Amino acid sequence: MKIPFLSLKEVTALRAVEINEAVQRVVSSGWYLQGEENERFEKNYADFIGTKYCVGCANGLDALIWIFRAYIELGIMQPGDEVIVPANTYIATILALTENGLKPVLVEPKLNTLEIDKDLIEAEITSKTKAVCIVHLYGRDAYSEKIAALCRKYNLKLIEDNAQAHGCRHNEQRTGSLGDAAGHSFYPGKNLGALGDGGAVTTNDEKLAQTVRMLANYGSSRKYVFDYCGRNSRLDEIQAAVLNVKLKYLDEDNDYRKGIARYYIRKIQNPMVKLPDTLPEESNVFHLFPILCDHRDELQKYLNDKGIGTLIHYPIPPHKQQCYSQWNDVQLPITEQIANQELSLPIGPVITLEEAAEVVAAINAFTI
């Protein structure tokens, strides 16, 4: 592929010297789990996000699972309770709820933002509703004062899925610090990516943080003492060390992404291609650059034939998946339209402006 969607090899090479030093430091230390690298990363990331607590865990899905499981263990939620969640999201958001016996209430997005439609939320609130989970999908800020006000009005928890939005802001606050708790993923392709799986929970709630930490460590409060039936879901020292290196450059890398995105927004002129509404620059870290096209599949093949890598996020929405067959007859037309039209263009800290120009030229020349 002449212009790959994202070359993780090149992304890692940007900080190769520091990453190699960090990994070697861990290898030489002889301490590979729950050590100083984790402590350092948790402190650094909490400071970066703007929360009192950060708890590392094995991956982003687990981060979300532990938030809801902790609320259940603390008596704030119980299986059967409802959580309002965007219908247009990666399946992990939904899995975290059903894993805990909670009922996802799927709310359509707005087509011009691709994020949950805040004006549809209140109509879905019932006596069983215990939380709203917003997803900062594609790196776009999904928070709004209206959603926060609804959560206060109905005494609901506000949970953020921040897996795709490391470093994003809403006014002066980072996403991941706006609600009661947030789940983060450090999958290698994320804006802040490890060299394997990794995740974290951020919160200002001390009791929640303590409970999440126990649940992710077999349910243990101290060695051989188990308060809960937990699991092994820990961030290892090597991943924490790598993340500590990359965190220093996250804002710089996000700024680079924004430059590529500005170029796309300014230069893509094909009337067959629709772009989501632009946000204030601090409110989008462009984990992905999604476009919509009625002829998405043809456009993807056309770009592929020109050596330009793209991905679809996501071709089958959660309510149409086999694992949720009970929802397969549910009609969510906007979510389904996005699934049929979305195409993600190459973006990241290593694509050059010259390559972006090639992408734009190809898109502008596309016809049916």
Biggest sheet descriptor = 7 strands, mixed
Instruction: Give the SSE string.
Output: HHHEHEHEEHEEEEEHEEHHEEHHEH
Query: How many helices does DSSP assign?
Result: 12
Strand residue percentage: 15-25%
Distance between the termini: 23 Å
| Backbone structural class | alpha/beta
Could you give the order of strands across the largest sheet?
1-9-8-5-4-2-3
User: Mean of the pLDDT scores?
Assistant: 98
Low-confidence stretches: none
**What is the total tally of β strands?**
14
Radius of gyration: 20 Å
Q: Quick one: overall form?
A: globular
Oligomerization category of the chains in this entry: single chain
> What share of the residues lie within helices?
25-40%
Tell me about this structure.
The mean pLDDT is 98. Helix 4 packs parallel to helix 5 (91-98) and helix 4 (60-73) crosses helix 7 (206-215). The protein has helices spanning 8-14, 16-29, 36-49, 60-73, 91-98, 145-153, 206-215, 237-247, 250-267, 296-305, 333-341, 353-364; strands at residues 53-57, 82-86, 103-107, 129-135, 157-161, 169-170, 173-174, 181-185, 199-203, 220-222, 225-226, 273-274, 289-293, 342-345. The strands form four sheets. It has a seven-stranded mixed beta sheet with strand order 1-9-8-5-4-2-3, with helices on both faces. A three-stranded antiparallel beta sheet has the order 12-13-14. The chain contains twelve helices and 14 strands. The protein is α/β, with parallel strands linked by helices and 368 residues long. The two termini are 23 Å apart.
